[in-house]
Amino acid sequence: xxxxxxxxxxxxxxxxxxxxxxxxxxxxxxxxxxxxxxxxxxxxxxxxxxxxxxxxxxxxxxxxxxxxxxxxxxxxxxxxxxxxxxxxxxxxxxx
Length: 95
What we know:
By secondary structure, this protein is α+β, with helices and mostly antiparallel strands. It has helices spanning 13-25, 84-92; strands at residues 31-33, 48-52, 57-61. It has a three-stranded mixed sheet, with no helix packed on it. The longest helix has 13 residues, at 13-25. The model has no long low-confidence stretch (mean pLDDT 90).
């Protein structure tokens, strides 16, 4: 379910503070975050955020096209390894 338009977009306040401080200093470093629900704001452009996917931190370089999306959309939580029947059928020669 989408967030109410009345409330506006959400971003973790601590994450916003860190990004704003880095922008004021002109600093570019990887910033770890667990806040997958945060919306990407224009001030995030050009930064690399390490977004937690439940197991590891995935580096995400923020570009202009990502503004308005959530951080979690770019840090996938599942690895697709193919369908189960494919390997068995190929090894036994059945078609």
